[in-house]
Amino acid sequence: QVQLVESGGGLVQPGDSLRLSCAASGGAFHGMGWFRQAPGKERQYVSSIDWSGSSTSYGDSVKGRFIISRDNAKNTVFLQMNRLNSEDTAVYYCAAARSDIRLTGAVDYWGQGTQVTVSS
């Protein structure tokens, strides 16, 4: 069975950084990425990356601050989160797809989520 397991979330202060990881098992995926959801808000696209790692995309709210990458040998995707602020507080979900997530909007599998809280 396909499983996506996130790690790396936690409580940080504004301006701090976190690195999220998502280890996939049970399949190989062309597109992988991250979404987030804050209380009372819709799930929001954060970032995605293609199989080669050469094509990346970011939501406007995180451009210039977050960097997505993947290690296909380990079937893992990462999200380096820099200069975090309170608006980044959310549950972050790993996503995997057989196609391009940004282009199609389709997600085939979801992780359980990891909490990121930015507070002073």
Describe this structure in a few short sentences.
By secondary structure, this protein is mainly β.
Task: Spell out the blueprint of helices and strands.
Blueprint: E1 3-7, E2 10-12, E3 18-25, E4 31-37, E5 44-49, E6 56-58, E7 66-71, E8 76-81, E9 90-97, H1 101-104, E10 109-110, E11 114-118
Parallel strand pairs: 2-11
Antiparallel strand pairs: 1-3, 3-8, 4-5, 4-9, 5-6, 7-8, 9-10, 9-11
Query: Major β-sheet, in short?
Result: 7 strands, mixed
Helix percent reads under 10%
Q: How many separate helices?
A: 1
List low-confidence stretches: none
Mean pLDDT: 96
Q: How would you characterize this protein structure?
A:
With 120 residues, this protein is mainly beta. The strands form two sheets. Strands 2, 4, 5, 6, 9, 10 and 11 form a seven-stranded mixed sheet that branches.
Distinctive features:
7-stranded mixed β-sheet, 120 residues
